[in-house]
Structures are given as structure tokens and as C-alpha cells.
TrEMBL record:
SUPFAM superfamilies referenced in this protein's UniProt entry, alphabetically: Carboxypeptidase regulatory domain-like, Porins
GO cellular component terms given for this protein: cell outer membrane
Name of the protein this chain belongs to: TonB-linked outer membrane protein, SusC/RagA family
Domain TonB-dependent receptor plug as annotated: residue spans: 221-336
InterPro entries: Beta-barrel_TonB, Beta-barrel_TonB_sf, CarboxyPept-like_regulatory, Plug_dom, Plug_dom_sf, TonB-dep_OMP_SusC/RagA, TonB-dep_OMP_SusC/RagA_CS, TonB-dep_rcpt-like
Family note: Belongs to the TonB-dependent receptor family.
Residue ranges of domain TonB-dependent receptor-like beta-barrel in the record: 600-1051
Taxonomic lineage from the root: Bacteria, Pseudomonadati, Bacteroidota, Chitinophagia, Chitinophagales
Membrane topology designation: Multi-pass membrane protein
Amino acid sequence: MNSINPSVSFKIICVLLLVFCIAAKTYAYRQEPTVSLDVHDVSIEKVLKLIKRQTGVAFTYQPEIFKNAPLVTIKVKKTPLEEVLKTLFSKGGYLFRINDKSVLVRSGNNSPGDKNQRTTKDTLYAVTGMVVNDNNEPLAGVTVSVKGGNRYAITADDGTFTLTKLGLNTQLVANCLNCERTEASVGGAPAITIVVKPTVAQLEDIKLNPVTGYQKIPKERATGSFVLLSQEDVNRASSTDILSRISNITSGMLTSTVDGATRLTTGPNTQGLGYSIRGVSTLSPVEVNTNPLIILDNFPYEGDMRNINPNDVESITVLKDAAAASIWGTKSGNGVVVITTKKGAFNQKLQLELNASTTIKGKPKLKEAKGYINTEDYIELEKDLFDKGYFNDDIANTTTFPALSPVVEILAKKRSGQITAAAADEAINAYKKNDVRNDWLKYVYQKAINQQYAVNLRGGTKDVRYTFSVGHDRNRDNLVRDGYRRTTFNVTNIFTPLKNLEVTLAANYSMSKYLLNNDIGYGDISSKSAKTPLLYPYAQLADANGNAMAVVKDYRQVYVDSISQLGFMDATYRPLNDLKLADNITNRNDLLLRAAVKYNVAKFLQLELQYQREEQISTTRNEMSEDAYSTRYYVNLFSQYNRSSGTFIYNFPKGAILENARYKWLIQNGRGQINYNQRFNDHSITAILGAEIKESAFSGARVAYLGYNDVTGTFAQNVNYNSYYNTNPSGSNTISNVYSGNSNGGYVLNRFISYYTNIGYNYKSKYDLTVSGRRDGTNLFGVKTNNKITPLWSAGLGWTISNESFYKESWLPYLRGRFTYGYNGNIYNAGSAYTTGFYSTDPTTQVPIISIIALGNPQLKWEKVRNVNLALDFRTKNEILTGTIEAYIKKGENLVEVYLQQPPQVGNAGKVYRNTGSTVTHGMEVKLTSLNIQHINFHWSSTLLLNLMKDKILSYNTPPGAINVMTDNGNLLYVVGKPLFGLLSYKWAGLDPQTGDPQGILKGQVSKDYTGIVNNYNIDSVVYSGSGVPSIYGSFRNDFNYKGISLSFNITYKFGYVFRRPAVSINEQDALYNNYSSAYYSSRWKKPGDEKNTVIPSLLYNSNDNGYRNAFFQYSEALITKGDHIRLQDIRVGYTFNTGSTMKAFKKMEVYSYLYNVGILWRANKFNIDPDSMDMPQALSVSFGVRASL
């Protein structure tokens, strides 16, 4: 990165700051609207119309108050609005309140209109009023009712309402969601203002504005595609991590996680969070981070997502298109999630928030697992394979003694005459009664219990605002002895030591502990036997008294017994004992420090410097006891036994094995920024200009200590990992080839530098223009790329049609159109301008060697994503229906492909990365919110999210191989003109009526030439089955409120996609290896005529087709199934106590219950498969909690 000098860059920024300081002092303007008038003897109402024409400010009043007002004469030039109104109303004794773009005017005690407004307690009259929040912002949709009566009005868009036939002492009550119930007395005034205070939710649904991480943008002036989520939205769910709380309520976001829980991340560039925004725009999902960029309080967050406590979150903004996200440049191609944590406010009384909840999740539904073969079918398979000689070689093998299941051992003893047929049948029948799933559910699995506790304090004085929070989570996982602990501390102080100077100091600290002791769950226990590598379903983990029992694992029981008699360590495997002995803990500490200085040069100009340092340290301590099976296995494997003396030499030391791993990530960010916000007459300009630098460093290693003694802390010295030793029961090997406890994580240092700007212009509150640009540089690419300005920019237009003079649609008071165009980008982490490799030592020659990872490409550059977005926002009268409709196009350009054809001089040296691929994604998003019923005590609203998305590969120059359909599992097999996640399959021609063999198509003819079909990549053999990603998805949420009771449920849906049912082997000898499914076994073809009722072929033994018959069926279109389904995702019930009389200490208290994964309402497949989890249905989780504020 020689072409980029950070020192020079910041000198340039300092010069720019100085220039803007001078300009600010010279050209300071006031942001308040100014008025110029020169009128003589006109009515007040006419003057107000002239002011509205110049400023756009609307006036609310009763016409009667100016009925007897004298004519006025006023002459002012570019005078602030407030001064003009004081001059205009002072003589008449009128009172007024300015609320941003509206002014409420009412008569005072001495105003002329007051003479006709005098009332007695028996007089009935009309009142016009306005409801505002504590920031003087008008509130729409507030119910204002007559206390003790049934008459009410709902405030309009400008917060105004009118009620008639009111008495002198009438009390009005204002009610709305997320605000405190407020009473106000009419008191004889014809116009009143009611100020309501927010509840804990802080009225985000009303005043929330998009936050990009660099600036806040008023909602009504944003041109980009945003999703705004309030604290109330975040708190609707109760999971430990933040992303799962917003996954099914965010337009454009698709969730691919099984149970909604964010997967564990261990540092920067970690893949697979399980969430995507408007699809994926890369052809390299392994090398390119496909996760959305996470921004936490203005800076990218690259730690474990579970370090972020959802109870600390104030709001979330999801940036989806280029105008919204391109300010983040080459990191924003997959969208941006901006998280803003809670902050105190100046002059705010101390506010204390408490939250406690417990979530209980049921055990996994093992009995409903689709990929499981039951005991009876499994034993029948074993008996049939035994009769065909499948196990003969293993039975006769006295060299490696491969493991044999108990039933096979019985059959072998019966054949050799060691036991009678009757005894064998009796023993086998006894095994048929066993089902290991019962033991798993009893001893290995448990109900998961997650507990959350959080305390948040915030407030402020005149010069200081502060926040302090602490949270603790204690999670017990479904697997016994697995769990998660998290404690978080957050402190933020914002203070003004000098006039116009604001300083922010913040610290976030998270301590997490992961207990990872259980590795004996469903599908986890394996064997080194090639013929029976999985645990047999009739295994017993414990006897009737709960004592751990042995199961066959790596060797035949005869070998296990023989070495035990010689004095070797016990070679039996008792899974439940290993579970008790396991001691595997990962601790993760994340410390994030932030500092910022903001100086107000003028009302319209700010200078800002920010710095963030994030350090994450992950340490793992995994102690495998001397009595653990894995330790005993390694000791026995390398032990040298002297038969004459009966002594041992332990080349693999006896004692425990201690594995210590330590990984560290250090990320530092610095930013200098100029903020400009100027309003004059009909014009408004908002702009930022800045530069930032970032450094990301990673280091780590894992070290193993053999022969470890936990009491003394000692371990074996001088262990020779690379010498060859004789191994038991036969052969020779090195310790390093068998046990890989040591590894060097290396050191990685990446640096970035960026320059950026964003400008927004508004004219007459009707027209908006936004422009942004960014240049990024990094040490990842070549000099040529760094010397070029990266064309990552965006432009947007906004038109508030409803503010035009010609617009007369009163039923639709708000209508706005938006259009944006621009570029985002992706960072490719694997490639480089230089040839890359890693050093190691040849285990045979002990000579240092270097292994090539990838050949250098000086032309390698950013992946770019071109975005086009067209949107329409609307709101009907009284907000009965509000909505947004958006259409977008995303085109991925310069996408990196991996080429395997290396130049001859380097031989088979690795990969070559080139920017030659491209993709396109078309989509539409619809969000509709309706107020179905809005009564004094009852509210019902509905929100529909509808997403339509289709993607396609435009160019991909790496041709697929002949057997890619098989090796790629039908996924990520890129074909031009097809979706990125399209599934390709072999054409299906049914089953052979005589043999039950699967049939395909080869050269246009029905064929059973499986070798020819699999190795023939032609359109006549392969068919496109459909997209593996839903093309239509969304949710439909309903929220009900009756007095203090709330009910909410969310229904999600996914349509327009397919999946491949779990594949199984149809070669009989592979059935045990693949854990054959009973559903397939019972429905397989057995006799002619079965082909009319099944697609499962006949089982063949010892097929001579190199596995191609099996591969053809597993990846044929016979197993393609529609994934469409509708799910009742969650239900939330809550009760908010009336804290006015009985619970005066509380501002608000709510108890709630939350149910997640309630169940599937409808599915297109007839196999009772949950398309989101495939193997078994998801378990229901139930949460109970209380949330209160003091």
C-alpha cells in the first residue's frame, strides 16, 4: 500500500478543517426560517398565509379568535420567524407554540377573540388542540377522549384534533401506543396543547430516524432504502443475540438459520451468520464475507455477535441499497445493519430500566428424525449383509481388528458354532427392544433454559448525559453439560466541558464463557470402521440403574479384551463416562473503547474526531482426562509392549492431554469528519466530509501438553512428534500425523484507508437530492488498484408529491417517491497481488518447505455491486394504512472466480483469482401497516412484509466438471443464466419395472448407464430443478392491545423454492455407512409393480459401477421437493400494569410471555419435512419475563 500515506491524508483533512472553520465564522447563517414582509392594514390571517408561503410552516387555530382582531401593519426583512410572530401577536395578547413545521395559535386572556369566548361552567363549546411529545413534535394517531364519556377524536398528521360540546371543567385524556396516559383540563380555552411523555420505548415509531453510522438522516428526506426498528421491535423477542430478534420483522432480510439463533462467530471475516439482505452478490461465499456489515455505535463491529446485549439496544437501521449503504464502501455489498445503543439525555431525570426473562426450549424431537433407521430395520440389514459376506473380511481381519457391531459378532459366533442358533436369536431379539434415542433423550439431552437479566441506568444534567448498563445471561443448552454465560458492561458519558464542545467517552466490555463438553449427541458418535462408522441404533448408553455402559467404537471387542489383559489402558468406550470427564471451556473477552470530540463551529457546522479500539481475546482450555477414551486411545496406539518383561514404553505419554488455544483480534479505527447542516429560506443542505483509517490484526496459536498433571501443573517434555513409532494393533506412524493438537494460527495484518462524502439537498420540503462518494484503499490488492479511485458512489432523488400545490388528495395526505443509483462493494480476502503461501517442515526430510496457496494477480480488485432502487412511500388519512413499495436491481461486477489452470512453470501450485464473474438480482419489497381498529381501549394493527427476489448468473468462465452435480451436492454449481443457489439434477425416467433400478436420460434415451450419465454434462442428462432460495418470502404480523393486555403473533412464509430430500445410499453395502432411513427402507422397490408407488430404487449388493448408480439417484430430480411453507413463527402476550395508583414507584411494568417456533401451518411437501431444519422438526421455546422502568 505504498501509494497511500495516512500521514499525508490526515494533513489534508486538517487543512480542510481549518478552511471550513474560517468559512463558518465568515458565512454563518441561522438555521431558523426567516421572513420578509411589507404589508399595511391587512388581517392577521392574511399575514399568516404569507408566512406559510415563505416558510412552509402551517398554522393551527380557531378562526373565531381573529374575528374582532384589528388590521395589522408589519415590515420586516429576513427576520427570524419567532420574532415576527412575537411582533404580530403581542398587541392582541395571542399565545403561540412553534412545533417544527407547525404553529399552534390560541387566544390569551386579553385577546380580542376572548370577548366572545368567555364561558361559564354551563357553556358548551368546541376546542381545537394539538398533541405533541416532549420534543415539541406533533403526534399523529393519538386518541383524545372525554374523560368519563365515550366521545373521542384521533389526531391528524399535524397532531391536531377538534372536539365539540365541551364544558368549562371537561377533562381530556390522550392515549397512544408507547406513550404515557396524559390528562389535560379544557379550562375554558378554545385551543390547547397536550404534551405526552414517552414510555420506556421512547416513541421510536414516531421520531425514529435512519442512522447510517456516519450521520442521522431525517426520515422524510432520506432517498435510500432503510428499515427502521425501534426498541419496542427489538424487545418483542427474547433471544440472547440481536440479529435473531429482527430476522422476521425486517423487510428484505432472509433467515437461513435453523432455530433463529445466531451462529457462533469467532472474529473478523467469519462466515455464516445465517442472514442475508437482498440476496448474495458474490460467487465466492467462502472467501468473501457474505454477512451484512454490522455497525455498532458508528463503527464496524467485528467481534462475536453474541457480545452485543439486546437489552442495550435503542434502535436498529438496516441499510439496503447503494444510497443508504455505499457510504461504507467496499464493506457494504451485502447490506449494513446499524445498531445504536441507549444513551442518556441532557436534563433527563435518572431512569432505571430492569428486565428479567427465562426461556425454556424443549428437547430435540429425535423420534421424528427423518434420517434415522430404526433398530429392527437396521438389524435386518445387518443380517442380510452378513449372509452376503459383507463382513467376512472384517471378521477375518486380525491385523487392524476393525469394529463389528454386537449383532454381527453374534452372527459370526453362530456361524462358527460358538453359540447355538436359538441363543443367537434370543440375543438379537433382545437388542431389537433397544432404541438408543431413548438413552440420548434421558442422559444426553435436556430442556434448554436461558436466563437473561439486565439493568440500565441513564439520565443527564445540563452539561452531562450518561448511561450505565449491566447484563448477565446464563444459558443451559439442550446438550447436557453444554452452556453459555455472558456478562456485559456498558458505560457512556457525553459531556460539554466548554461551550460548543462535546466529548464522548464509552466502554463496552463483554465476558463470555462457552461450555463445550458434550460430543456424544445424535449423529456425533463415530467409529474408525469403514463399514459401520456410526453408532448402531440398538446401543445402550446406560443400564437400568443409570450406570454407563460400553459401546463398540474403533476396534472389535476381542482386541479390546486382549490388550486389557496385557496391561494396556482400558480400551472400552463408555460415552456417558466421557461426558462426565469432559472439561472444554472457551472464554472470550471483548473490550471496546470509544472516544469522540465534536465541536460546533457554528449552528450549521461541526467538526468531529472519533476513535475506536476493539480487542477480542479468545482462550480455550480443553483438558482430556487420563481416563477419557481419546487419551487412552492415543496412549495405547503408540505404546510399545515388551512381552518378555511385561513392561511398556509410552511414546505417547500417559496422563491427561491439555490443549490451550489463544487467539487475539485487535481492530483500531480512526475518523475525522466535517458535518454541515444549513437551512436558509426554501433550501436545506446536509453534508459530511471525512477520512478514516483502520487496522486489523490477528494472531494466535494452539499448544498441546501431553502427559499433563492437573495437580502439579507439569507435563511430558521432549515429546517427539515426527518420529515413526510402531502402532497397535499394527503398522507405524508419527504422533503428528495422528494427533493434531498443535497449530500456529500465524499473524495477519490488514490496513484500510478511506475518504468519503455525502451531500443531501432539499428544496421547499418537496425535492431531495443526495450524492455520496468513497475511495477505499487496502494492502490486500495490487498497487494499480490502490492508485485508482474506487468508483463506489451513489446518487438519489426524492419527491414529496403530497407537498405540491396541485396535490388535492385528502384521503392520501402523504405520498413520496424515491430513486437511487450507485455502487457498493465486497472485499475478497483470499486473493492478493502477490503469490501467497505458508511455511512448514517436511515430516520426512525435516527440510523447511513453502506451500503455495494462491498465485499473485496485480490486477485483482474490489468486487462491485451496482444498485438501482425505486420506491414509493404513502400514508392514508389518520394513518389507517401506511406503506412502502420498492423495486430494485443489484448487479454484481468484477466478481472473483477461482481458476485452477496454473502456468506450466509452477506446476500444481494453487489457485489463480480473477475478476471475471457477474450476477444480477431483481426484487420487490412491500411493507404495509394498517390500523384496523383504533378505539379508546382497543387497538388492532397489522403489518405485511412481502419480498420477491430472483437472481441470475450473467457470466462465469469456469466450466463445471463432468461430475459436479454429484460432488457439489447440487448447490453452488454455477451455470450462466441460472440462480446462484440453483439446484441441478439428473433427469429422472422412473424405476425399471423389472429390477427397480433408477433410470435416467442419456443422449435422449432412457438409460441405466450411470457412468455415462454422471460423466456427461449435457442438457439431455441434467435438468435445472429450481432455486434453493425462496423467491417469495415475508411475514404477516398482527398486534392487539386492550387496556393493559397485548397480544402479537407473527406468521412467516417462504414460497418459490425447492430442496433435495436427504439423500441415502441405494447400494446395500453402504446403507449402514450412510445411516439409512427407515422411511426409505420400508418404501424401497421390492417387487414389480412397486415402481407405481415409490421412487426409492431397489437395494443392490456389491454393485460394480463405482458408486455411480448411487450418485445418480441421490442427485436426481426424484428427490427434489417443494420447500413452500407457512409457519406460525411466534406469539407474544403481555400485560402492562396501571402504575398510576398502586405502583407509583414504577413508570411502567410489563409481564410477558413469548413463544417461538410454534409450528408449521401449511407445507407443500407430503413428507412432513420442515424445510428449514430438514432432519427433524424444530423444538418450541417458551419465554417468561418482566420489564419495568423506574
